[in-house]
Amino acid sequence: MNIVTQIKAWQTIRKQFNTHSLGFIPTMGCLHEGHLSLVDRAKRENDRVVVSIFVNPTQFNQEQDFLSYPNTLEQDTQLLIERHVDYLFLPQASELYSDHYSIKISEETLSAELEGAHRPGHFTGMLTVVLKLLNLIQAHRAYFGEKDYQQLLLVKKMVEALFIPTDIMACDTCRAKNGLALSSRNTRLSPEQQQHAAHLFRLLNSELDINTLQAQLLELGFKIDYVEEKWQRRLAAVWLDGVRLIDNTKIR
Ligand code: PAF
Predict the structure, then answer these.
(1) Where in the sequence is the domain holding 55, given as residue range(s)?
(2) Which end of the chain is more exposed for a tag (fewer CB within 10 A), N or C?
(3) Pick from 68, 124, 59: nearest CA to 93
Protein backbone atom coordinates (compact mmCIF):
# COMPACT_ATOMS: atom_id res chain seq x y z
CA MET A 1 0.00 0.00 0.00
CA ASN A 2 1.29 3.40 -1.00
CA ILE A 3 0.90 6.05 1.73
CA VAL A 4 0.51 9.57 0.38
CA THR A 5 0.61 12.62 2.63
CA GLN A 6 1.22 15.47 0.16
CA ILE A 7 -1.51 16.77 -2.11
CA LYS A 8 0.93 17.35 -5.01
CA ALA A 9 2.20 13.76 -4.70
CA TRP A 10 -1.35 12.43 -4.89
CA GLN A 11 -2.13 14.60 -7.95
CA THR A 12 0.92 13.19 -9.74
CA ILE A 13 -0.16 9.62 -8.95
CA ARG A 14 -3.75 10.32 -9.99
CA LYS A 15 -2.66 11.36 -13.49
CA GLN A 16 -1.23 7.88 -14.01
CA PHE A 17 -4.39 5.83 -13.96
CA ASN A 18 -6.66 7.31 -16.55
CA THR A 19 -7.72 3.93 -17.84
CA HIS A 20 -8.37 2.37 -14.43
CA SER A 21 -11.50 2.80 -12.36
CA LEU A 22 -10.89 4.27 -8.94
CA GLY A 23 -12.96 3.70 -5.79
CA PHE A 24 -12.68 6.02 -2.79
CA ILE A 25 -13.60 5.66 0.88
CA PRO A 26 -13.25 8.84 2.96
CA THR A 27 -12.83 8.15 6.69
CA MET A 28 -11.76 9.78 9.93
CA GLY A 29 -9.83 6.67 10.96
CA CYS A 30 -10.46 4.44 13.98
CA LEU A 31 -11.47 1.89 11.39
CA HIS A 32 -13.88 -0.96 12.12
CA GLU A 33 -15.61 -3.69 10.11
CA GLY A 34 -18.11 -1.11 8.81
CA HIS A 35 -15.33 0.83 7.05
CA LEU A 36 -13.72 -2.40 5.92
CA SER A 37 -16.95 -3.58 4.32
CA LEU A 38 -16.89 -0.39 2.22
CA VAL A 39 -13.29 -1.18 1.29
CA ASP A 40 -14.23 -4.74 0.28
CA ARG A 41 -17.07 -3.49 -1.89
CA ALA A 42 -14.85 -0.82 -3.49
CA LYS A 43 -12.23 -3.51 -4.19
CA ARG A 44 -14.86 -5.63 -6.00
CA GLU A 45 -16.15 -2.73 -8.08
CA ASN A 46 -12.94 -0.86 -9.03
CA ASP A 47 -9.43 -1.49 -10.37
CA ARG A 48 -7.80 0.65 -7.68
CA VAL A 49 -8.95 1.72 -4.20
CA VAL A 50 -7.92 4.73 -2.15
CA VAL A 51 -8.88 5.34 1.48
CA SER A 52 -8.37 8.69 3.17
CA ILE A 53 -7.96 9.22 6.89
CA PHE A 54 -8.45 12.78 8.03
CA VAL A 55 -10.02 13.82 11.32
CA ASN A 56 -11.77 16.87 9.98
CA PRO A 57 -11.75 19.64 12.62
CA THR A 58 -14.43 21.74 10.93
CA GLN A 59 -17.20 19.17 11.34
CA PHE A 60 -16.86 18.91 15.12
CA ASN A 61 -19.18 21.33 16.83
CA GLN A 62 -17.50 20.71 20.19
CA GLU A 63 -13.74 21.14 20.49
CA GLN A 64 -13.48 18.51 23.22
CA ASP A 65 -15.10 15.95 20.91
CA PHE A 66 -12.44 16.71 18.27
CA LEU A 67 -9.57 16.58 20.77
CA SER A 68 -10.71 13.25 22.20
CA TYR A 69 -11.35 11.63 18.82
CA PRO A 70 -9.37 8.36 18.87
CA ASN A 71 -6.18 8.17 16.81
CA THR A 72 -5.40 4.58 15.81
CA LEU A 73 -3.33 5.25 12.69
CA GLU A 74 -0.91 2.35 13.12
CA GLN A 75 -3.69 -0.19 13.54
CA ASP A 76 -5.75 1.39 10.72
CA THR A 77 -2.77 1.19 8.35
CA GLN A 78 -2.31 -2.49 9.15
CA LEU A 79 -6.01 -3.23 8.53
CA LEU A 80 -5.89 -1.47 5.16
CA ILE A 81 -2.75 -3.35 4.12
CA GLU A 82 -4.51 -6.63 5.00
CA ARG A 83 -7.48 -5.56 2.82
CA HIS A 84 -5.12 -4.84 -0.10
CA VAL A 85 -5.96 -1.16 -0.37
CA ASP A 86 -3.79 0.49 -3.04
CA TYR A 87 -3.43 3.99 -1.59
CA LEU A 88 -3.85 5.53 1.84
CA PHE A 89 -4.23 9.30 1.61
CA LEU A 90 -3.33 11.17 4.81
CA PRO A 91 -3.66 14.88 4.04
CA GLN A 92 -2.41 17.51 6.46
CA ALA A 93 -4.90 20.07 7.80
CA SER A 94 -2.57 22.92 6.80
CA GLU A 95 -2.66 21.78 3.14
CA LEU A 96 -6.32 20.83 3.00
CA TYR A 97 -7.34 24.09 4.67
CA SER A 98 -4.76 26.44 3.19
CA ASP A 99 -7.64 28.94 2.99
CA HIS A 100 -8.17 28.67 6.79
CA TYR A 101 -11.74 27.53 6.13
CA SER A 102 -12.66 30.89 4.63
CA ILE A 103 -14.29 29.01 1.76
CA LYS A 104 -17.14 26.70 2.73
CA ILE A 105 -19.93 24.77 1.12
CA SER A 106 -23.23 24.85 2.93
CA GLU A 107 -26.66 23.44 2.23
CA GLU A 108 -29.61 25.30 3.67
CA THR A 109 -32.66 23.07 3.85
CA LEU A 110 -31.91 19.40 4.45
CA SER A 111 -29.01 20.27 6.74
CA ALA A 112 -31.15 22.42 9.03
CA GLU A 113 -32.96 19.49 10.63
CA LEU A 114 -32.15 16.40 12.72
CA GLU A 115 -28.32 16.20 13.01
CA GLY A 116 -27.96 19.74 11.67
CA ALA A 117 -30.32 21.16 14.30
CA HIS A 118 -28.36 19.49 17.11
CA ARG A 119 -24.84 20.00 15.75
CA PRO A 120 -24.57 23.53 14.35
CA GLY A 121 -21.94 23.81 11.62
CA HIS A 122 -21.40 20.06 11.42
CA PHE A 123 -22.77 19.58 7.91
CA THR A 124 -20.99 22.64 6.52
CA GLY A 125 -17.68 21.25 7.78
CA MET A 126 -18.52 17.77 6.48
CA LEU A 127 -19.63 18.96 3.02
CA THR A 128 -16.61 21.25 2.69
CA VAL A 129 -14.11 18.50 3.42
CA VAL A 130 -15.95 15.93 1.27
CA LEU A 131 -15.95 18.37 -1.65
CA LYS A 132 -12.21 18.98 -1.24
CA LEU A 133 -11.53 15.23 -1.07
CA LEU A 134 -13.76 14.37 -4.04
CA ASN A 135 -12.05 17.07 -6.11
CA LEU A 136 -8.61 15.80 -5.14
CA ILE A 137 -9.19 12.08 -5.44
CA GLN A 138 -11.29 12.25 -8.63
CA ALA A 139 -12.66 8.79 -8.03
CA HIS A 140 -15.20 7.10 -10.24
CA ARG A 141 -17.09 5.91 -7.17
CA ALA A 142 -17.09 7.04 -3.53
CA TYR A 143 -18.56 4.84 -0.79
CA PHE A 144 -20.64 6.09 2.15
CA GLY A 145 -22.42 4.10 4.87
CA GLU A 146 -26.16 4.43 5.43
CA LYS A 147 -25.59 4.74 9.17
CA ASP A 148 -24.99 8.48 8.63
CA TYR A 149 -28.11 8.66 6.51
CA GLN A 150 -28.53 12.44 6.47
CA GLN A 151 -24.84 12.81 5.57
CA LEU A 152 -25.34 10.41 2.67
CA LEU A 153 -28.36 12.39 1.38
CA LEU A 154 -26.43 15.66 1.65
CA VAL A 155 -23.36 14.32 -0.15
CA LYS A 156 -25.59 12.98 -2.96
CA LYS A 157 -27.35 16.33 -3.17
CA MET A 158 -24.05 18.26 -3.32
CA VAL A 159 -22.61 15.96 -5.99
CA GLU A 160 -25.71 16.44 -8.12
CA ALA A 161 -25.92 20.21 -7.59
CA LEU A 162 -22.22 20.80 -8.34
CA PHE A 163 -21.93 18.28 -11.20
CA ILE A 164 -19.17 16.31 -9.49
CA PRO A 165 -18.29 13.34 -11.71
CA THR A 166 -18.13 10.74 -8.91
CA ASP A 167 -20.89 8.19 -8.29
CA ILE A 168 -21.96 8.10 -4.65
CA MET A 169 -22.47 4.51 -3.55
CA ALA A 170 -24.72 3.91 -0.52
CA CYS A 171 -23.74 0.93 1.63
CA ASP A 172 -25.77 -0.91 4.28
CA THR A 173 -25.02 -0.26 7.93
CA CYS A 174 -22.79 -2.92 9.50
CA ARG A 175 -23.98 -4.17 12.87
CA ALA A 176 -22.61 -6.15 15.78
CA LYS A 177 -24.37 -9.47 16.52
CA ASN A 178 -26.59 -7.67 19.06
CA GLY A 179 -27.69 -5.16 16.38
CA LEU A 180 -25.61 -2.18 17.54
CA ALA A 181 -24.51 -0.15 14.49
CA LEU A 182 -20.71 -0.22 14.22
CA SER A 183 -19.21 3.18 14.94
CA SER A 184 -15.83 4.57 15.98
CA ARG A 185 -17.63 6.08 18.97
CA ASN A 186 -18.51 2.61 20.31
CA THR A 187 -14.92 2.38 21.56
CA ARG A 188 -16.00 4.91 24.20
CA LEU A 189 -18.48 2.37 25.61
CA SER A 190 -17.65 -0.62 27.82
CA PRO A 191 -18.83 -4.07 26.62
CA GLU A 192 -21.80 -3.81 29.03
CA GLN A 193 -22.69 -0.35 27.74
CA GLN A 194 -22.44 -1.63 24.15
CA GLN A 195 -24.85 -4.40 25.04
CA HIS A 196 -27.24 -1.83 26.50
CA ALA A 197 -26.78 0.49 23.49
CA ALA A 198 -28.13 -2.30 21.26
CA HIS A 199 -31.62 -1.50 22.63
CA LEU A 200 -31.58 1.49 20.28
CA PHE A 201 -31.57 -0.71 17.18
CA ARG A 202 -34.02 -3.19 18.72
CA LEU A 203 -36.53 -0.42 19.40
CA LEU A 204 -36.05 1.39 16.08
CA ASN A 205 -36.55 -1.90 14.30
CA SER A 206 -39.68 -2.80 16.28
CA GLU A 207 -43.31 -2.19 15.36
CA LEU A 208 -43.74 0.25 18.27
CA ASP A 209 -45.19 3.66 17.47
CA ILE A 210 -42.78 6.56 17.82
CA ASN A 211 -44.16 7.81 21.17
CA THR A 212 -43.94 4.41 22.86
CA LEU A 213 -40.49 3.95 21.38
CA GLN A 214 -39.31 7.27 22.84
CA ALA A 215 -40.83 6.43 26.23
CA GLN A 216 -39.02 3.08 26.28
CA LEU A 217 -35.69 4.70 25.34
CA LEU A 218 -36.08 7.16 28.24
CA GLU A 219 -37.00 4.33 30.61
CA LEU A 220 -33.82 2.51 29.57
CA GLY A 221 -31.75 5.57 30.51
CA PHE A 222 -31.09 7.03 27.04
CA LYS A 223 -31.27 10.80 26.56
CA ILE A 224 -32.92 11.69 23.28
CA ASP A 225 -31.81 14.34 20.76
CA TYR A 226 -34.40 13.18 18.24
CA VAL A 227 -36.36 10.16 17.07
CA GLU A 228 -38.18 10.88 13.81
CA GLU A 229 -39.70 9.17 10.82
CA LYS A 230 -38.51 10.63 7.52
CA TRP A 231 -37.35 9.45 4.11
CA GLN A 232 -39.11 6.12 4.85
CA ARG A 233 -36.73 5.61 7.73
CA ARG A 234 -36.76 5.87 11.48
CA LEU A 235 -33.80 8.00 12.50
CA ALA A 236 -32.54 8.61 16.00
CA ALA A 237 -29.75 10.32 17.90
CA VAL A 238 -29.48 9.48 21.58
CA TRP A 239 -26.97 9.72 24.39
CA LEU A 240 -25.89 6.83 26.58
CA ASP A 241 -23.67 7.72 29.54
CA GLY A 242 -22.29 10.78 27.73
CA VAL A 243 -21.70 9.03 24.38
CA ARG A 244 -23.79 10.14 21.41
CA LEU A 245 -25.14 7.38 19.19
CA ILE A 246 -26.99 7.67 15.90
CA ASP A 247 -28.80 4.99 13.96
CA ASN A 248 -31.62 4.52 11.47
CA THR A 249 -33.71 1.69 10.08
CA LYS A 250 -35.94 1.30 7.05
CA ILE A 251 -39.65 1.53 7.88
CA ARG A 252 -41.09 -1.89 7.12
O1 PAF B 1 -18.45 9.89 7.93
C2 PAF B 1 -17.29 10.32 8.18
O3 PAF B 1 -16.45 9.60 8.69
C4 PAF B 1 -16.95 11.76 7.86
O5 PAF B 1 -18.05 12.58 8.01
C6 PAF B 1 -16.33 11.93 6.46
C7 PAF B 1 -17.29 11.55 5.36
C8 PAF B 1 -15.06 11.09 6.36
C9 PAF B 1 -15.93 13.40 6.26
O10 PAF B 1 -15.00 13.83 7.19
Answers:
(1) 2-171
(2) C
(3) 59
